[in-house]
Specification:
about 375 residues; alpha/beta; 11-stranded mixed sheet; 11 strands; about 35% helix; globular
Length: about 375
């Protein structure tokens, strides 16, 4: 996660709210780690069920899948995560609001004093749902909009009317007093629409704009050819950097995720700029690819993965072991290797001057080179050698 607004304009109100760590409220944000190895941000795919059919879905979600953990198992997981005092639990899916246990989990997380947010397609957020989310203490509602043109968004999401319902859901969440964010997955079909989507966020009073990069996992692997070119990606990153400065008075927080190279490229375009040293410190603190270190994933069956884009790496199952055992006490050889992987990267990633702040996306490296330690071939940094 690269918070452009924080790095360039020292503005990140949503970030501060979501990532303030108990007992550290008085420290400057650059001193706060997003999470730590033994206290990762956890993304929990509550269900594989979804009412849309998105072209890029990493989980290959569908309309009928309901192979979920029992309520009792889920409650136990929340208690374990609360005991570890993880910084954040992200409810996602599939569509998390389609999980039969969602509200029970949300309210239990609140009672356990566990900071929880939701990642959703927004189409099910009625005013009543928004009110319940607020009552459950959901700290943030991220809603996906992949085009300013309704028909284009609907085509990508697989259902007619998805854009209208998602935008209304976003408005309902906003009106209920919830912190909200507009999210977009970047492809060749919509990269030129980023200015229009930024304007939409401003017009609707949405305080956060989050750009996701396409990661070839699940159905996303089937549309890898629709990823942007390096030139298109550079143009978008430069646009967001400029917007983070120009839109300070609009109170719009701008960030990107699923691409640690964004931070490296930001450092590249800041050469000769007095802000570069501070941005370098922020990027080094973020640490680049967080898989297996600062993020963890739990799927709908209780399988634990190093991140949501690596379902092929199974670390354990929460029906058989506790999260603490899997993540801290008895980490598998695969997990230990991921935590040390930067020291053995190959190709351009291994030789890159930005290795300590990036390291590339390991899933992209695996997909495009067949080697988890290979180089991330989607990199947009032009001066890689150290």
């Amino acid at each position: 996660m690269i918070v452009f607004s924080k790095a360039l304009a020292d503005q990140a109100t949503v970030w501060k709210t979501l990532h303030a760590i108990e007992g550290c409220e008085n420290l400057p944000p650059e001193m706060l780690r997003f999470s730590a190895q033994n206290r990762p941000v956890v993304m929990w795919n509550l269900t594989k069920q979804c009412n849309l059919a998105c072209a890029h879905c990493y989980m290959d979600a569908n309309a009928v899948g309901r192979d979920e953990l029992s309520l009792e198992e889920g409650i136990r997981i929340i208690d374990e995560l609360a005991e570890l005092r993880i910084p954040m639990l992200i409810f996602t899916g599939g569509e998390p609001l389609m999980s039969r246990n969602f509200y029970a989990y949300a309210f239990h997380a609140q009672q356990a004093d566990l900071r929880a947010v939701i990642s959703t397609n927004g189409t099910l957020i009625t005013p009543e749902v928004a009110r319940l989310l607020a009552e459950a203490g959901i700290g943030y509602v991220g809603v996906s909009l992949d085009s300013a043109v309704p028909e284009r968004h609907d085509s990508f999401r697989g259902i007619s009317g998805a854009h209208r319902r998602a935008l209304q859901g976003l408005r309902n969440a906003r009106d209920a007093g919830l912190k909200t964010g507009l999210r977009v997955t970047l492809t060749r079909d919509n990269w030129h629409e980023i200015p229009a989507l930024l304007n939409l966020a401003i017009e609707e009073g949405i305080p956060r704009f989050c750009l996701y990069h396409l990661v070839p996992t699940g159905r996303g692997a089937g549309i890898a050819s629709r990823d942007v070119t390096p030139e298109e990606r550079r143009a978008v990153i430069r646009l967001l950097a400029e917007a983070a400065l120009e839109l300070q008075e609009k109170d719009l927080e701008i960030l990107t995720t699923d691409s640690p190279m964004d931070g490296a490229y930001l450092l590249e375009i800041l050469k000769g700029d007095l802000r570069r040293e501070q941005v370098w410190r922020l990027m080094k603190n973020a640490g680049g690819c967080s898989t297996g270190v600062k993020v963890a994933n739990i799927n709908h069956r209780g399988d634990v993965h190093p991140c949501h884009f690596m379902p092929h790496i199974l670390l354990g199952n929460l029906q058989k072991s506790s999260f603490r055992e899997i993540w801290i006490d008895k980490p598998s050889a695969e997990l230990r290797a991921l935590r040390e992987i930067k020291s053995s990267l190959k190709g351009a990633c291994g030789d890159c001057q930005y290795l300590e702040v990036c390291g590339g996306c390991r899933q992209k490296a695996l997909f495009y080179t067949g080697d988890l330690r290979g180089e991330d071939t989607t990199c947009i940094v032009e001066e890689k050698r150290s």
